[in-house]
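Q: What would this complex look like in 3D?
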Amino acid sequence: MANTPDYSWPPMESRKVIGKPMKRLDGPAKSTGRAKYASDTKPKDMLFAVYVHSPHAHARVTAVDTADAEKMPGVKAVHVAAPAGTECMWEGWEIAAIAATTEHAARQAAGKIKVEYEVLPHLVKDDDLKLAAGKTKQGGEKVVGDPDQTFKDAEVVSEGKYGIPIINHCCLEPHGAILQWQGDKVMAWPSTQDVTTWAGQLSPNIKVDAANIKVKMDYIGGGFGSKFGPDAWGAVAAILSQKAGGRPVKLFLERDAEQMIAGNRPPAYGTIKIAGKKDGTITGWQSDTWSTGNMPLPYIIDQIPNLRVNHATLTINSGPPRAWRAPNNQQVCYLTCGAVEDFAAKIGMDPIEVFKKAVEHGPKPRIDTYKYQLDKAAEVSDWKKLWKPRGTSTGPVKRGLGVAISAWGGGGHNSNCRTTINPDGSVLVEIGTQDLGTGTRTIITQVAAESLGLPMSKIKLAIGTNDLPPDAASGGSSTVGGVTVSTRRSAVNAVNKLFEAAAPSLGAQPEDLEAVDGHIRIKGSPNKSITWEAACKKIGPGKISEMGQFNRRQPAPGMNDQGAAGVQIADVSVDTETGIVKINRYTAVTDCGLIVNPRLAESQIYGGIIMGISTALFEQRFLDQQTGKYLNADMEMYKLAGIGDIGDIKVHLDIRPENDKRGVIGLGEPCAVAICAAIGNAVTNAIGVRVPHIPMTPMHVLNALEGRIA
Amino acid sequence: MSSNKGRFSRRGFIQGVGIGSGALGTGLLEKEAAAAPPANVVGPGPVPLTLNVNGKPVNVTVEPAVTLCDALRNYLDMTGAKRVCDRGTCGACTVIMNGKTVYSCTTLAIDAQGKNIETIEGLGGPEKMHPVSAAFWNNDAQQCGYCTPGFVMACKGFLDEHPDPTMEQVKHGLGGNLCRCGTYMGVRKAVLEAAAAMKGAKKNG
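A: Here is my prediction, written as structure tokens for the whole assembly.
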């Protein structure tokens, strides 16, 4: 055997399973309603728990009286999470939880808990800095070059106001878990993006060794960055279970609480000035922005030689921010690409050409990619034919096109895989990962099948528990890069062992063998072969069990990579009488490295875009500064895009040999970045004025047309 | 959220205005409300009910405030219908009742007595998929899959009424189901494929 096995991907043209549009393995279970999510699980004797939440945006608890509630029928356990003295920082803050034999009984009992509050002053509005006096923290000013002189000398200066609000993750399966605490052991069925470390995160909060906490999750109903940990409710469910004598307790948030406390994406607001030349060269940038989080600006084009960047962070009394599919990228993309579009309009240039110049200020290795993708996106979207200078579309319904660029990391996360080959020919692949709906099950199985020369149906896959070889959180589009490499290495290691067992019967050396089409054969001599099953019989009484690992500190060049570009173009129609924006066509050119499964890759990209369209046109929380209340913490008035709201979407996967050579790159996030920016720019191009604030609702559009800019 | 003053009760909600856009589109809930006989006074404690689910009578004892969705999920272990918005907006809980698609989160179990309730469990399982389920798989009309069973049932109900739909009708007729992962492109194709498959099956049958 060679000292270091060859783990590299088979060449593009000889792949049999990788790169093929296989249907997702769990599709039948999902399409028939048989897939059991954490929230569908019902272990024997399960109790239902509900929370009592603070109705105030800011208050101190002065008394909690659970005596009447405890006497209610069916109640088995009560836990006070916020005893007297607790300062509740937002509406929905968890005060107490009750577990009862039925959900109805738990709700009835929760109504009997008496909580008294001292109501404190609140700030819930994030878009008005004047209201926020004393609640902001100025970050240090960043100055590069000589911005003052640059703006003074500039041929052209453009300036605009931009805003993108807080939005909610709105996972369809709410946050929560079922916990059973018996003796010194805890069993957990959570809805989580991180099966491997969930127990370790819970352990200190309930003082049970992580080794004694078993976690199981087969399916998750959406996470999008908001479900990495057990949260407070994981621990509360465990405590309720312990108090109830070890009966399992289900604690999932109800929809209003889900919207209030289980995750939101920070906003970004501010003013941006660009200095430049009439030929489209950008020479200076100045931004004054604020948010509840950090917003590094400018986005991608951060090598502009003269910069002045100011950012303030703001604390408001509303549920805490959480990671969101490509955290902060959508916001800074909207601000940056909006400002570049406004600069292009001011000098009367085609924004595609201005972006081509602007990306010269971007990361060196991506400059040519962006230029290629800008041209490609223009071609796919019919830009040359359809784009007109800003505000020149005629008639009451105006058409406009807008472009935006995006970037993402997407490197693989740490992952361990075990491949077991049994003497009967059966194969088991095990990884402690999770399938968020991205198709992780399917792509792991594809990689294993390709590496073992078997059809996918021969591979049994185990994921979703924390006693499997450890993987990591599914975040940052890092899963595909991690699991494909660990699986490939583990399967290659295992099949090499099989070659050792089978070599004598083929009269060959192990390194001369290959596994193809269910056979072990001598390379170059397809006739000298034995079947997979016959080869496995040679394993003897034991079995082959081999590990494979990817550790992000040891890069795997050619196997996976990070750093994805992308260009997207929106084509919209705006009715200037009603303010309604409709998507005609949305085009995405996506950087993607080696594509394991084009069908699933395309679904991911459609999904990222549709989510972005939802944000760009509809999603808006209404928090009332007078009362501090979240007025639309539901799914009726917190609007999501429906099947008829998204226009037509065209995805162009940038599959070129030079991309394939980079190996696997995560693509769930890069595709989800540019939508607000592209749509915002398209609307502006159509109607001739900037609509500063996302979403592009009729109110915002009509306000902009009437010159009533908030 | 529980127990806070000013919270709308489910009953008040169902009797009142809180009808989601999808239901409004079909006018189903309004029709049901208008046609309902005066309610007998039962509860508030558990009452025995018989529901006709997928052609079989099943007995369940629940409080009159329990929705059909919760009765299916929490008492009958039929978890295909999901509880998501819990207020008749998103369609994840869709079942078919007397031939009409309804939001089971906005239907009381007690009001579902005497009606023919079809849930996704009544369609074929993974081994023998209903053409709608198969079309959802074939067209990757799912990611996390949490909205999928409701979408499949809404699609079946829609195709029962529109066996030969245009794309425009699909966009309108399935507007009452929401997906957060963004699988609508696949769903559009799936509905048309299922329509063709079901017509073919009818012809051959």
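A: To summarize the key features: Chain A has a mean pLDDT of 96. Chain A touches chain B through 73 residues (CB under 8 Å).
Q: Very helpful, thank you.
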